[in-house]
Design goal:
Structural class: alpha/beta
Strand order of the largest sheet: 5-4-3-2-1-6-8-7
Strand content: 15-25%
Helix content: 25-40%
Number of domains: 2
Radius of gyration: 22 Å
Order of helices and strands: EEEEEHEEHHEHHHEEEHHHHHEHHHEH
Distance between the termini: 47 Å
CATH class of the largest domain: Alpha Beta
Number of strands: 13
CATH architecture of the largest domain: 2-Layer Sandwich
Largest sheet: 8 strands, mixed
Bound molecules: adenosine-5'-diphosphate
Shape: globular
């Protein structure tokens, strides 16, 4: 096993807590803009058989094993273990804060916020908006407060980046009283889009004020229309179900289908949830897998159809978002599929050729940063996303601002 060198620097812990796993990273290195990850890892199997894995910045394994010192569902115990491990591994380092990825900020949270008892109560109120994710985000914050009460925590929201959207992009055509209750389009993957909004002007300074569609294509997938680095529209809505097909989610579906399934086939809320979150998308269409790699490597016609359906809908949404913001100056691919699938990028670009999009096949295969052909009217980029870095930057920013306001 590799070992980390001693360090006396401040460290920021980043946590992405799910139902059965807790992914983490530790960032070090001075100011928020200079930090780098020194450790990444996860505790998987929470609730059943916890397993701990950690790697250093060079992807060398630092730890990999069963975690049986505490109860399998004891989140505070598991976080206590993680904190001890970090203290031991990063000798001399001082953990100054923890930043959490929080899926839903509702209408209240439009920026990262220091976690307090009041904030936790306000987040509890948002659970009905994201019942599969929010409770786990909150549980991790509560557990960490229990084992390390003096460690400042910051919540960073996947919805916050979209708060700049005009009302037309945020509103369903439903009675106003329902909209007032919060039934509106929020959008997700905001931390990823925010990172891309920072990166793109570094990669292509001439696009700082451009109309850009960013395609975040992972096992969850959405697209975002950005003007001058601000979100103006996005494909996900009230929940992370809307938009393009995903690994196991269908994307946009005629709501009449749901009424039909309830009336004619007796589906209840739980069955609909299972169908829409776990059994549809690439898995449902292919009958084979939710993983794009499996579909690309398969000879099954249904696998090819699933890939085609995915690309068709991504291309359609690029065009729809260009229409929504009134222009298209660049397209960016990011996340697992967007960064890695040469086939998906090529098929989507082909379908957008009428908009003046043309890809250079060699650059696409090589996963170059700029993959458009010389003659392409619209430049096309691959920009790897980094949501963890965004969370660490926000977290250190919020802590610094809090300290400044205390000193004033
Ligand atoms: P999430 O964060 O939403 O879980 P990621 O952004 O990590 O997802 O993307 C995961 C997906 O990326 C995998 O399910 C797989 O389909 C896809 N992927 C990863 N590598 C490749 C590859 N080389 N070719 C095609 N698809 C890939």
């Amino acid at each position: 096993m590799a070992a980390l060198s001693n360090s006396s620097e401040d460290a920021c812990l980043v946590i992405n807590a799910g139902s059965s796993s807790l992914k983490f990273s530790v960032f070090q290195g001075g100011s928020a803009s200079e930090i780098e990850p020194v450790v990444t890892g996860q505790i998987s199997g929470i609730g059943t058989a916890p397993h701990f894995q950690a790697k250093d910045a060079q992807r060398r394994v630092l730890a990999d094993g069963v975690l049986d010192e505490v109860g399998p569902a004891d989140r505070a115990g598991l976080l206590g273990f993680l904190l001890n491990w970090i203290r031991h591994e990063l000798k001399g380092a001082t953990l100054v804060a923890a930043g959490h990825r929080v899926v839903h900020g509702g209408t209240r949270f439009s920026a990262p916020v220091r976690v307090t008892a009041t904030v936790l109560d306000q987040l509890e109120e948002l659970i009905p908006l994201a019942p599969l994710h929010e409770p786990h985000n909150i549980a991790a914050m509560r557990a960490l407060a229990q084992v390390y009460p003096s460690l400042p925590q910051v919540a960073c929201f996947d919805t916050a980046f979209h708060q700049t959207q005009p009302w037309q992009s945020q509103t369903f055509a439903i009675p106003r009283e329902l909209t007032a209750e919060g039934i509106r389009r929020y959008g997700f993957h905001g931390l990823s889009y925010e990172y891309i909004a920072h990166r793109l002007p570094q990669v292509a300074p001439e696009l700082a004020n451009a109309h850009v569609v960013v395609c975040h294509l992972g096992s969850g997938a959405s697209l975002c229309a950005m003007r001058a680095g601000h979100s103006v529209d996005t494909t996900m809505g009230f929940t992370a179900l809307d938009g393009v097909p995903m690994g196991t989610r269908p994307g946009a579906i005629d709501p009449g289908v749901l009424i039909y399934l309830m009336r004619e086939k007796g589906y209840g809320a739980d069955e609909l949830e299972k169908l829409l979150y776990h059994k549809s998308g690439m898995l449902g269409v292919s009958g084979l897998s939710n993983d794009m790699r499996d579909l690309e490597n398969s000879d099954l016609p249904a696998a090819a159809e699933a890939v085609e359906l995915f690309c068709h809908n991504v291309a359609k949404q690029v065009a729809a978002l260009a229409g929504s913001m009134g222009g298209l100056d660049a397209v960016v691919f990011t996340a697992g599929v967007g960064e890695n699938s040469t086939l998906v990028r090529a098929r989507v670009a082909e379908k957008l050729s009428w908009l003046g999009v043309a890809i250079d096949p060699a650059a696409n295969r090589a996963k170059a940063t700029r993959i458009s052909a010389q003659e392409s009217r619209v430049p096309v980029f691959i920009i790897p996303t980094d949501e963890e870095r965004m969370i660490a930057r926000h977290t250190l920013g919020v802590i610094a601002a809090t300290q400044l306001s205390r000193a004033a």
